[in-house]
Amino acid sequence: MLSTMQDAPLTVTRILQHGMRIHATSRITTWTGEPEPQRRSFREAGERASRLAHALRDELGIDTGDRVATLMWNNAEHLEAYFAIPSMGAVLHTLNLRLPPEQLVWIVNHAADRAVVVNASVLPLLVPLLPHLPTIEHIVVSGPGDRSALAGADTAARVHEYEELIAGRPASYDWPELDERSAAAMCYTSGTTGDPRGVVYSHRSIYLHSMQVNMSESMGLTDKDTTLVVVPQFHVNAWGLPHATFMTGINVLMPDRFLQPAPLAEMIEREKPTHAAAVPTIWQGLLAEVTANPRDLSSMRHVTIGGSACPPALMKAYDKLGVRVCHAWGMTETSPLGTMAHAPAGLSADQEWPYRVTQGRFPAGVEGRLVGPEGEFLPWDGESAGELEVRGPWIASAYYGGAGGEPIRPADKFSEDGWLKTGDVGVISPDGFLTLTDRAKDVIKSGGEWISSVELENALMAHPEVAEAAVVAVPDERWGERPLATVVLKEGATVGYGTLKEFLGGTVAKWQLPERWALIPAVPKTSVGKFDKKVIRRQYADGELDVTEL
Ligand code: AMP
Predict the structure, then answer these.
(1) From the CB of 513, is ligand 1 less than 6 Å away?
(2) Which structural domains are found in the chain, ordered by start?
């Protein structure tokens, strides 16, 4: 028997129209580095998105299913592209402007992007690549910055100015009726090994994910909030925030290219966001900044931290500043919201703590299971560690196979029954809280036992003189692998390895304590700000680290 309910497609267009009409006066504020930021209402941004869609269709000839790339910071124009491109039936392809040039070239060619919208400040990165990007027919330049690099560019692509392109075009668009399962946006994984892989989000997955982002068990924001979106729009759709804001009218504060701790602290003090989202390294940097130069962060009641494990010491430090951190886990393949660590009801602050430091619970749209080394399903007993697999309506079922190609389902990424293999290892408690102990490839396998590099890092970063710490497995004749602790000390700190090892001994079993130690100036980071452990492993193998054995 069928239901009697209407069947309205769940599309990005619907989110855009809702935001423009119902939350017309909500605001997008973009930091400019000038005394005044740029301010734009949702209605204005929506109208400009309509103008952009007209321009893309009528002037650039962008058609249904065509890929339009963005190479942009977080700003209002990027948000306009977020809505215009999918709503007209084309596919938004966000490019990570921190990727090595050869990866960017590979990705643009693989996606066969026809046009790219680029911030002028990023032109020095794009222009040298143009001779290698034969599919790009149009370059749309937006925002302040020198355009002179384009003058001698080796490309047949036509160059347009964003503002000139959209000027005078209609402020409304007869948006097409789209299949909710059609492609709306795509994002390639950071690809630490092998070629990057393209995840293609559907209108439906974005719609459902946005609803989840807005639920109070996730970020739970409303039109009374302002969110500071530090997580880049090129990194998993800025964790779904841009779409989620138009659903509930959340005001948006966009940092553009001002991502250093000092301007971030200034924008928080001046614009008073109630929420912010970023990876732990951003919060580490901001903490160091406000410790040196105190700022009023009190507006920011809560922040979402994810992308890599949040050190509990960092959470505690923000607790002291009155900023409540909520830890979240996700991946490019999971849109990204996979879990969030809100403690269950009815607990004291002390009782909440062990829940808050986990990766959190799955929302109703995400199912998880743990798989052991022999492929067996493990119990949720808080002890049995295995690889996490997930499935749900905003989880990838395959990677993009290129124009005309079949979707790709590598056996190491998808189970035979269609679950995503996350590559993350952890345990799940009987009440459903996930604790990740490592990436499968980062686990230290010492004499048949596993050592969690994350646990050692967290314990080290709890030391008051340690700014950052990364632990990697290094080959060991006797044990197979042993941990190497690389440590970044805070300015002026003098603590020795022996003291640090003793300090670790307070929380970690003796046999897990690292024998090898090295001081480093900074932990190498990936293009999205995560610890890049493969660089440390290589530096160790090449003898570039000054290692002390204890
Ligand atoms: P990406 O697709 O680049 O966002 O990377 C996803 C990966 O980041 C996950 O598979 C995890 O290994 C890692 N990750 C994300 N969030 C967390 C977290 N809260 N704790 C630990 N690892 C995380």
Answers:
(1) no
(2) 8-27+38-196 (3.40.50.12780), 366-440 (2.30.38.10), 442-549 (3.30.300.30)
